[in-house]
Amino acid sequence: MPRQIDTTRQFFFKVILPLALLVTLLLVGSAGGLIWLADYQTKTAIGEQARLARAAVDVHGEALAKGAADYGHWDEAVEAIIDRFDFSWVDGNIGQAGAQNYGLAMSFVLDPENRTVYSYVDGKGATVDARSLLSNGFNEILARNRAGDHVSSTSGLVTAGNELAMVAVAPLRPFDDKARSQDTGYLIVFVDVLNGARLAELGHTYLLPNLRLVDIDDGSVDPRARIRISDEIRATARYLAWDPVRPGDQLLQTAGPVLVVILSAFLALSIFVLRYSGEAARLIRSSEARAMRDALTGLPNRLLLLDRLDRLVGHLKSRKPGVALMYLDLDGFKAVNDGHGHAAGDALLCQVAERLRSLLREQDTAARLGGDEFVVVMPGLTNENELRTRASRIIETLRSPYRVADTVVEIGVSIGIAVSPTDGQESAALLQKADQALYLAKSSGKGTARFHSDKALQVVG
């Protein structure tokens, strides 16, 4: 009997106890690792959601600023507002048109002293003072725009009563009238009130559940799942918040009990964790990809374009093979959009995107900046003759007839071309130079392409 007890004790100390300790260490290590992984996933997911929230605000502001700039760059508007103020024309073509085309709650026209000469509020045209309705940042946005180049538009967030509002300010300037100064002093102001329904729409698009405004002292909000609205309205002490996706919490709720109950589930749990982590990463990447793509055409949007261009230009600084950037603006699109409806305009833009894709090399990138403006980036191309050939091919391809809304329509395209490193080695500089070249192409009769560095202004196409 004593020998049997001794043998049993030896087996316990040599096999059972070490095995039990090993299993305990595995369980503790696995539990600790699971808790750390869950916390890391949650932090990473919320961090990505914060980036998406900021991107949602920025992209919405850029789109509204582009719309205001389109309405401000208009000879008829200059004549109807400055030369002989025509209230009916302004009300129909700016106030009502802005509400119909962009869903705007308000729009204004300001004179050089920032006095309101026209307002569209609550579906009515009048002369309600914009500054009586907009506060906490509106004056700062006006000042930033007036201190600029008198050509570019400016956007930002302000408060409109108890609501958050996106405001875009664009200079009123002539389009074809070269005798008139571009600096008229008048401003077009578009206001999109981000009420609950509007924020819910943005939240759905960018996968940010229950996107809403909250006070800084709201204890029900995870401090990581909120962003300050803007530097210009700090005094409001309000944040843009959402209900964060917490993949780590879901992981613990699913895997924790299994880990505690049975050791044999340890291997299965590990596989589950890896799969769950991969799915969470895939969802995050998918959310980020949606924020970087144009919802209509599927092409990269401005954010993704700038990211790729920054990497490409940074890479070129060392090897210097060059990169060409083509800035495209469709000629005649507005007539199609107005004459056949926005659905037809959207269908036309999708067909334009498909034609652009068919002309790209594997290493090229086509992006939609908004409205009817596109950009094509062609790394490794600096030869002007080859670029002229490619530009001509794009012009010919895009001017071929389109079938939309059971009818055939025709449009054209004007192209501005900038080449790195000749025209600059920064993304912003290249876009600006290409935009300037596009202006030359538009001025020369449309349906052409111009190089920024082409002193002879030789027409392509």
Task: Considering the chains and any ligands shown, give keywords for the structure.
16 strands, disordered C terminus, alpha+beta, globular, Alpha-Beta Plaits, six-stranded antiparallel β-sheet, 2 domains, disordered N terminus, 461 residues, five-stranded mixed β-sheet, Beta-Lactamase, 13 helices
Find the structural class using helix and strand composition.
alpha+beta
What is the CA–CA distance across the termini? 105 Å
CATH superfamily of the largest domain: PAS domain
Mean of residue pLDDT values: 83
Q: Which residues sit in consecutive blocks of at least 5 with pLDDT less than 50?
A: 1-5, 231-235, 455-461
Instruction: Give the CATH architecture of the largest domain.
Output: 2-Layer Sandwich
**Tell me about the biggest sheet?**
6 strands, antiparallel
Helix content: 40-55%
Please report the number of helical segments: 13
Number of E-type strands: 16
Net shape: globular
| CATH C-level of the largest domain | Alpha Beta
Instruction: Kindly report the CATH topology of the largest domain.
Output: Beta-Lactamase
> Which strand order do you get reading across the main beta sheet?
3-2-1-6-5-4
Count the domains.
2
Instruction: Report Rg.
Output: 29 Å
**Strand residue content:** 15-25%
* N-to-C order of helices and strands: HHHEEEHHEEEHEEEHHHEHHEEHEEEHE
